[in-house]
Design brief:
Elements: H1 3-6, E1 14-18, H2 26-33, E2 37-41, H3 46-51, E3 57-62, H4 64-75, E4 82-86, H5 94-98, E5 103-105, H6 111-125, E6 134-136, E7 139-142, E8 147-150, E9 153-154, H7 159-170, H8 178-186, H9 195-208, E10 218-221, E11 225-228
Parallel strand pairs: 1-2, 1-3, 3-4, 4-5
Antiparallel strand pairs: 6-7, 7-8, 8-9, 10-11
């Protein structure tokens, strides 16, 4: 089962937009035109809206400095999907992805492409079926509760580490390439830096391997990628 690839987008996805304009800007109208239910909130009201559970995705439509600040505030308490739509045409997108954004686009991207990217993030981050539990050797993963156990002991995993490990476990020993991991976990495909995956695998090994320097669970397949062995 490959939930990252096959889970459907909600029939009417609820997008919360952090924007200085009112609820009738061209961007917001475009999102509505593409079938999204759009809510608008100032940055100081984002947390309350997200905590209510009434949104499926947050779109930060602002400048780079404000987007980083709002993203950090969201990631301090929530794993809600976040797309950053910058007002700048030239900005380093990698820092937003590393800070926890699911996707990031600069100013100039068409509204149709932005809507497509939002749908792609929703497909990747669609909540798993309630009660679904993955088991592999001494490991238990509950995606719905964002819970990972090693020998019945909870292990804290940030969202990207959790998503990467979930992808590897679901593949049941088959190889996952760096490019595929970037597409399915980070959401920026071949435009991303494959070393990002290497860094996160190293962090995961420190948490799941008895000897991280000599891994027996998260295995490197030379020139191809990584695979998980229970």
């Amino acid at each position: 089962m490959h939930a990252f690839e096959t889970a459907p987008v909600p029939v009417v996805a609820r997008v919360l937009v952090s924007a200085s304009e009112g609820g009738r800007s061209p961007l917001l109208e475009s999102l509505r035109h593409h079938g999204f239910a759009v809510l608008v909130a100032p940055s100081d009201a984002l947390a309350q809206q997200v905590e209510s559970g009434a949104v499926d995705l947050v779109l930060l439509h602002t400048d780079a400095a404000s987007a980083l600040q709002e993203l950090a505030a969201l990631r301090a308490f929530s794993t809600v999907p976040v797309v950053v739509a910058l007002r700048e045409t030239r900005a380093s997108l990698e820092r937003f992805l590393e800070a926890g954004a699911d996707d990031c686009v600069p100013s100039g991207v068409t509204r149709a492409e932005l809507a497509t990217r939002v749908r792609a993030v929703l497909r990747r981050r669609q909540r798993p079926p309630v009660g679904e539990v993955l088991r592999a050797g001494p490991f238990v993963m509950d995606p719905g509760r964002h819970l990972f156990l090693h020998d019945d002991v909870p292990v804290h995993l940030p969202p990207k580490e959790f998503g990467l490990l979930e992808l590897l476990i679901r593949r049941d020993g088959r190889v996952v390439s760096r490019e595929e991991a970037l597409e399915l976990v980070w959401g920026h495909g071949h435009s991303g830096d494959p070393s990002t995956v290497d860094v996160h695998v190293k962090r995961l090994r420190a948490k799941v391997e008895d000897e991280p320097a000599n891994p027996t669970r998260l295995l490197t397949v030379r020139r191809l990628g990584y695979r998980f062995q229970a």
